[in-house]
């Protein structure tokens, strides 16, 4: 690790008391009940995570502030080895798809236009469970006007902006997608190689770790992006996509399957998702245009921190443990497993 990264580690640890975002009482309770998080666990895990980063020669300029590291610890319920693996996969994904994920600048004209259209934005109102609601309007993605690069940047700007808030890391996310008018041509924007990589990196570990399951394209990849996705609501699912949905859903565990809901009307949607978190056009109180403007302000407030993610570098992917390397035996010396203090905790997908 470079000397500049080591000084960053020291500065982050020294300034943590002042820099860390506070959690609400509700979020503190959820963190303890669902993530096994308390102050002692959090402080110990952060110190061990930083020590590992400072000694890991595969990492350069890796952020070590609490807000960044906690997103990986929380999504893996403070299993340090798993959090380290998710960090490595996250950085590997970013470097592999630099043309899609680097330079997450919301002022790029095409990116700004897609955000302003309402294709994807976060509601300013949390749902009844305290989660931010990510809203997708499929008809706003015009494949004759926007590219897969525009689409990817909007998704990543959304996820990175929201993950910079610790409350969101703990409470998780709900998704709402109105797929009416979604053009099938959107799929053809992606090359077979890009699509295959997204599926591979989008696998959820089934209970026991034996069977991979596919992720829905609207969701961030839990193997590589540390987000707790709790519910996904679909409205106006086109008939051709229904077959794809059914195929993928049959491969989910029962727990994950229960989080995907298809609604045939707004009335049924409102029974499962707090209408106040939706735009006025879908039964809420705040007009969609106002929500989008508030979201753009939130993006702008996080822009500098999000774009600084490009400074981090993974020198080698040798430390990433795959199913193939896992099956090779327990004598692996992969970075990220052999150098970890602590043990794996028994986890379930949450």
From TrEMBL:
Entries under SMART domains matching the protein: CRAL_TRIO_N
One Pfam family, short name: CRAL_TRIO
Any one Gene Ontology molecular-function term assigned to this protein's record: phosphatidylinositol bisphosphate binding
InterPro entries in the cross-refs: CRAL-TRIO_dom (IPR001251), CRAL-TRIO_dom_sf (IPR036865), CRAL/TRIO_N_dom (IPR011074), CRAL/TRIO_N_dom_sf (IPR036273)
CRAL-TRIO domain boundaries: 107-290
Organism of this sequence: Megalurothrips usitatus
Any one cellular-component term (Gene Ontology): membrane
Protein name: CRAL-TRIO domain-containing protein
Region feature (Disordered): 1-22
Composition skew (Low complexity), residue ranges: 1-19
